[in-house]
Amino acid sequence: MARPFASGAVLRAHEPHGLRQRDNMKHWTVHQNEFFDPFLLGKPTPAWMQKGVPYLEKGRRGVSDMFKPRITTARTPVQDR
């Protein structure tokens, strides 16, 4: 009996064997959640899993709007009392 197989390879253009660029990390996080949600939480299967994604379209989906914007605060030196 054939068992379903999901590749663990992470292949991104201009990346070494791991993910270094923040946008690629976000993309990977979203897709991991979408992959496991139907199996573990009973959520509907996303369209990209049912229909597939053409090779030239891979990695073009914008996922940055799913994350909170980074808030940077300027550090001020502690004043003497």
Please explain how this structure is put together.
This protein is mainly α. The protein has a domain at 21-53. It contains 2 helices and no strands. The longest helix has 19 residues, at 22-40. The mean pLDDT is 77.
- List unreliable stretches of 5+ residues: none
Major sheet size, sense and barrel closure = none
Shape: extended
Helix content: 25-40%
Global structural class: mainly alpha
Number of strands: 0
In round numbers, the mean pLDDT is 77
**What is the oligomer described by this structure?**
single chain
- Cα-atom radius of gyration: 19 Å
Count of individual helical segments: 2
Percent strand equals under 5%
Q: Could you spell the SSE succession in H and E letters?
A: HH
Distance between the termini: 74 Å
